[in-house]
Amino acid sequence: MRLVKSRRDLDQALAHLDGPDGVGLVATMGFFHAGHVSLMKQAVADGKSVVSIFVNPRQFGPEEDFDRYPRDSARDLQIAEEAGIDLVYMPPEADVYPPDFATLVTVSELSDLYCGHYRPGHFQGVTTVVARLLGLIKPRRAYFGQKDYQQSAIIRRMVADLVLDVEVRVLPTVREESGLALSSRNVFLTEAQRQAAPALHQALVDTEREMLAGERDGARLLAALERRLKRIPGFKPQYWALADRRNLEPKGTAAIGDVLLVAGHFGETRLIDNCLLGESNQGARTLLELT
Ligand code: AMP
Predict the structure, then answer these.
(1) Could you say which of 148, 171, 194 is where a domain stops?
(2) CA Rg, the chain, in Å?
(3) Domain span at residue 116?
(4) How far away, in angstroms, is 148 Cα from ligand 1 center?
(5) Is 201 marked active-site?
(6) Distance between CA 215 and CA 253 in Å, rounded?
């Protein structure tokens, strides 16, 4: 595995790496867990693989946790190497945002819904950095996690709208045995919060079960989801929604394949989760079919 920290070294390493199938990119903010590893393993299985590690300041709001976002690059490099990654790019901020950098990429509407409503500017930061990384690395494939469902939908929209020559692959959420979705921010949870947090996934699964048993009325399903979320000790739900899996428009009537989205806080720690109705139990699935 090669580690590069500058754009010049990146170009040189990519020139050596590039083969007939191009490279696959896993864009991350580091502090790896098994969710990142599952993306890396898929990238490795598909061909030459690049991981970027960059805690992107533009996707954090002024009151958010950029400064205390967890970082451990020595451990990350070891994990990437064990996953079989060919190249890690750890850019300095000036590589990603040179002083004359002036372009912001915004996927309108989709970026204002749900998480975007509570984190203004967040998705613009994400699409801007992802567009920049796609330009720097020019991958043929890019891997994202279902855990950040809205993010994956926005990136797919951006890639389609700008006719970017990259295949977006979305992989299912990796969870702890308890059901808690793995997240770099889980380290911030206290012991009591960690005990309570799996109930977030359970609330989604219980609501999915209700839907599969025949309840299709969106308002009733969301009211039941709300009750479940509000019962979780120490949890302050922010939003809960039923949406179309492609354009994320809210839905009044639930259908198989729609997505339930939730977000909220345990203290200062913000967690998100989601569930594709009828699919939460498909453990063998590797790539999400979203189109
Ligand atoms: P991050 O480092 O948090 O920016 O995440 C990098 C990538 O890993 C994003 O595409 C995330 O959606 C994905 N990811 C994060 N957590 C998980 C998880 N629990 N399961 C699958 N993918 C994940």
Answers:
(1) 171
(2) 19
(3) 2-171
(4) 7
(5) no
(6) 9
